[in-house]
Amino acid sequence: MLALIMTLVLLSSIGLESVVLASSTSKDNSAETLKNVQLVLVINEAKMLHNGFEKALNCPNLLANDRCLSEPYIFKELGLDVEWRELEETIIFRDDTKELKLVMEKPLPNWSVYPTIINNNIYVPIRYVGEYFGFKVSWKEDKKLAVIKK
User: Fold this and answer.
1) What domains appear along the chain, each with residue ranges and CATH number?
2) Quick one: which of 39, 40, 52, 89 is 20 to 30 A from 123 by CA?
3) β-bridge pairing 90-94 and 99-103
């Protein structure tokens, strides 16, 4: 209960009062559940808030050239399939209609950052992937938070 109260205080302090709270034990990936998803990524910390509930990540979210980088698997929370092809050093994102392939260390058109591997962790620019699939991606400069909404 204390964790829920602390999460609500954090969300209120960053102006995200409209987060829909769901059961933290629920793993319902139905279309209705995935329709209104919000992820909040905390820079320099290995965590995110998924619809108000804190989830641990494998590696910290980073800021590079004014762009947020995070592990690609956060996009599973938004309903995407994520596949890592180690031999090709390629990460593939898919939904029902689109596919995006990103090759590690390969520059992206008109972007100052690219997919990379740091300390054996895969990082992708969240705005690039998110906007490709039509998600709303925003940045809260004062709190150093990236927000992805579906």
Assistant:
1) 2-143 (3.30.457.10)
2) 52
3) antiparallel
